[in-house]
Amino acid sequence: MTSVQIATPLNFSAVLSSLSKAPPAVSPLPSSASSTTTSPIIKKLDLNVPNIRLSYASDLSLNSLYIPRDPKTIPKGFIRACGKAGGYAPRPVWDSITNGITPWFENKDGCFIYFNCNDSHWWIDSEQGAGLYLAAPNGSLLLPPTGGWMALTGERAGAPKMNFV
């Protein structure tokens, strides 16, 4: 006699309930915050990782100080890019391209620098999540290289330089 296994139907209310208990990608505003403020608070990563000063980029919005961020937190620009690319869920995509250990870095405008494990390159993205520059690691997966950046158009002219502060 052959046994037949019948698949249990998916309980969507249980799935939604478990998803609603998942930690947010960014910290919510404290209850004392003004109701007109809508931007989330992202805490500085408490590791012995230096800030990055980026300069000489042809895109002037990139030239500024970048603060290390928790690798489990998803950059807002990355979330925007996932939505524009067809509504992909940001968490599984972010988790598939990052290692969960290497911090990413963000400037005051939301531009960000991160290590992509899929192609083994560091990326500099705009605040909208558009890739602008990439570089191969230079001996470290914890910190991006200070030079060797190339625009996605293949040009090295106007590519940024970094120093650690």
What does this structure look like?
The chain is an alpha+beta fold and 165 residues long. Helix content is 16%, strand content 20%. It is built from three helices and eight strands, in the order αββααββββββ. It is globular. The relative contact order is 0.17. Residues 1-43 have low confidence and may be disordered.
Number of helices, where a helix is a run of at least 4 consecutive DSSP H or I residues: 3
Q: Helicity range of the residues?
A: 10-25%
Termini Cα gap: 72 Å
Nearest-integer average pLDDT: 78
| Percentage of residues in DSSP E strands | 15-25%
Order of helices and strands: HEEHHEEEEEE
Strands ordered across the widest β-sheet: 7-6-5-4-3-2-1-8
> Shape from CA axes?
globular
The biggest beta sheet is recorded as:
8 strands, antiparallel
Q: What's the gyration radius in Å? A: 19 Å
Structure classification: alpha+beta
